[in-house]
Amino acid sequence: MAEPLNVGLVISRAIGLLVRRMVGSSPERLVQTRTGAAQSILTGAGWSPGRRVAVEGYLEAMAREGYEPTVQLEEFLAEYGGLSTSRPAAQGFVEEVFATDPVTAISNTHRNTVGMYEAVTSTALVPIGQAYNGHMVLMMAPDGRFYAGYDSFFFYAGDGAVEMFARLFSGPLDRIPIPDE
Hints:
The protein is α+β, with helices and mostly antiparallel strands. The chain has one domain. It is 45% helix and 20% strand. It is built from seven helices and seven strands. Strand 5 and strand 6 form a beta hairpin. The chain is globular and about 35 Å long. This is SUKH-3 domain containing protein. InterPro entries: SUKH-3. It comes from Kribbella qitaiheensis.
């Protein structure tokens, strides 16, 4: 049986390929371009350096589901919480790229699914948002690393917020195998 099409991964890789063609093969140049593009998209979504939003609602939702937020997670949410952006898709549809809304991510992601990802990483993960029209859950580990999951597809998304957003916008996300159950 053929593996199901992972639309988010296809889009991420296509954007990554286009960016690499535009900037050449220099890894340093690629990182600069991806980071600059991510910051530009984030600014368009309402982010600015030093941005602060209330996180109490996010923390309450996490506590209700047994997630334990860290100071680093609270800092991330204070700066990036509530941001979302979309871009036009074919035939006038709107395609969501990301939304940093832990309340929605937690309510749309079964705790057992996060537990499966935690078993693979051997660390606690907390849902912090969603990508690709809610099909992919974004998660943060206590060490500040970011991960993304789409059912049985699991990805490393970056060491920090800007890297995670750059990977979401232009790829690639690094796939992490999930052992057969």
